[in-house]
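Protein: Site-specific DNA-methyltransferase (adenine-specific)
Species: Shewanella algidipiscicola
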Amino acid sequence: MIKKQRAFLKWAGGKFKLVDALTQHLPQGDRLVEPFVGAGSVFLNTDYQQYLLCDINHDLINLYKIVQATPEKYIRAAKAMFSDTKNDKQVYYQVRSEFNQVSDPFLRSVYFLYMNRHGFNGLCRYNKKGGFNVPFGSYKRPYFPHDEIMAFADKAQKAEFRCIGYEEAFSFTQSGDVVYCDPPYAPLSTTASFTTYVGSGFSLDDQALLARKARHTAIDRGIPVLISNHDIPLTRELYHGARFDTIQVQRNISQNGSGRKKVDELMALYDDRYHSEND
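Structure follows.
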């Protein structure tokens, strides 16, 4: 049995636990395109010849390009940030403040991993001015992901990284591609705000537009698209015309631990090749 590869970033909504079940729903193809790459668990645990990995988070894509090009140099600099003296609230806020003021890509990438591992719950959140604003996490000894960075760098030789939105990502798709979309999830209830899930605000309009893009890409161009989201009436309505499957997943819905319960994960596959074979 092949051991699953962990991402080197902690990531809210990361797909590591689901990756075995999820990859069974991915069609075969030459290249996997991910418009919402996040921490990259699907990329790391699939075997396509090539990858196009996109995200609107500039810091994330910048970090991946640096790890792809100069992993050893990056590891040396980033590891220096993982000492007992730097696992400190005041130091964390000082680094966060510096991060929000510097523009040097390499320095930002080093600070980004430090904050990802020392910040609260590995969250990645920015304020309206674009400042990173996740509080200190108070962990006993944050883990430095040396092996995970090296594994990512190795696999990244097959990948191209682009800092673009999901609409533009679809415009780069071509024959032989397979698209996997892991958007910010639709809220489980009308009281749950989208801003809880993502700082940039992924609206209901975005959810609907993504569904339409996926449908047209599959039907008009023969490129299959798999989307994951909460299995709720809203998403089943949005992804009409897709082939549905579900995966059960443990997710913390409420603030307190007692709120943990199983929420089904919807896998919506638009694949015109499948429909034409089964019509």
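Remarks: Residues 204-221 form the longest helix (18 residues).
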